[in-house]
């Protein structure tokens, strides 16, 4: 693993544990067992770390959504795929996803604008899938914003649950969560 990747991984863990604002470059250097000045050989500062972590996860969601949208499946099947996408990302990027969910508002400038656009586009695409499911009579005629809010509220918190669970419990989650979340909105 490159030194920069080690820095990002350690920073994600620290940001998850303490929050972005509470972590200093000295804290990160101490956790890496290196001098703070040496960190700057690999990164420009905390803002670069935050942007890298958050945008990497946001792009994973965008790529996943693009794949789901290209699929010729029903809206219900697409919604299932998106739930599984959230689980997959929570498993692969647990700490960075925590940072995205709790510290995105600390982004500045272009990275902030890019994240907001990616988030809005993702939510709009998810909403469009739900709306197409209503039109196809796959989902109940409910307020789409309420449906989306409830789905995303649950999906955005999976990273809190996953580290505490066994492989079997995660497998059950992959099998059961789509059923649990979509049963209430299915026609």
TrEMBL record:
Alphabetical UniProt keywords: DNA-binding
InterPro entries documented for this protein: Homeodomain-like_sf (IPR009057), HTH-type_Tx_Regulator (IPR050624), HTH_TetR (IPR001647), KstR2_TetR_C (IPR041490), Tet_transcr_reg_TetR-rel_C_sf (IPR036271)
A GO term, aspect molecular function: DNA binding
Pfam assignment, any one: TetR_C_24
Keyword Protein biosynthesis: no
Domain of life: Bacteria
Domain HTH tetR-type positions: 1-61
Gene3D superfamilies per the UniProt record, alphabetical: Tetracycline Repressor, domain 2
Stored PANTHER family: ACREF/ENVCD OPERON REPRESSOR-RELATED, ACREF_ENVCD OPERON REPRESSOR-RELATED
Protein name: TetR family transcriptional regulator
The organism's taxonomic lineage, starting at the top: Bacteria, Pseudomonadati, Bacteroidota, Flavobacteriia, Flavobacteriales
